[in-house]
Design a protein that fits this description.
Elements (H helix, E strand, L loop, with lengths): L16 H19 L2 H4 L6 H13 L16 H9 L15 H7 L3 H11 L1 H14 L9
Helix pairs in contact: 1-3, 6-7
One iron/sulfur cluster binds next to helix 4.
Length: 145
């Protein structure tokens, strides 16, 4: 568990499809294409000039740092509120689940249980669950399918 990646809402950045799947796949694609010599010819292909810097940046720098460092929607009301209140995770807030979670929980069905686990059994149990998911290759977006 890397605490830098704990999100206010109860998600864990290391178990997000962007970090766990898209960035590694972009890196592999970039390296394969570079090794095949695409860098020298891609500007000749339609859309290639825009695509190559995008792929290179995604592979080398990534598209996302973390929720705590400001990735995700800049206007996320959950993050703004939790930061103002000095709350590390919303599940630990006395107002949880506040109305900001009404719609949000519909998009992340597993989050209700995860946050209940955090409230009832603490951060260690929650962290163990996130680490197990990471090992299994689960990402939060899988729960929507
Ligand atoms: S930006 Fe908001 S929704 Fe996204 S992970 Fe952070 S708290 Fe959750
Ligand atoms: S009121 Fe509490 S639970 Fe709701 S967004 Fe703010 S910190 Fe999170």
């Amino acid at each position: 568990m890397d605490e830098r990646y704990i999100c206010y809402c109860g998600l864990y950045c290391e178990n997000c499809a962007v970090k766990a799947r898209i960035q590694p796949k972009a890196k592999a694609l970039y390296e394969d294409m570079k090794a095949a010599g695409f860098e020298n010819v891609i500007h000749l292909l339609p859309g290639g000039s825009g695509f190559w810097p995008f792929l290179k940046d995604t592979a080398e720098k990534g598209t996302c740092v973390s929720c705590k460092e400001g990735s995700g929607r800049p206007d996320c009301g959950i993050r703004i509120c939790a930061k103002e209140k000095g709350i590390k995770m919303c599940a630990l807030c006395e107002s949880y689940p506040c109305n900001r979670f009404t719609e949000f929980l519909k998009n992340y069905p597993q989050l209700e249980k995860d946050n209940a686990l955090l409230r009832e059994q603490g951060l260690e149990a929650w962290s163990k669950l996130q680490d197990e998911r990471r090992t299994q290759g689960f990402v939060h977006q899988d729960a929507k399918k």
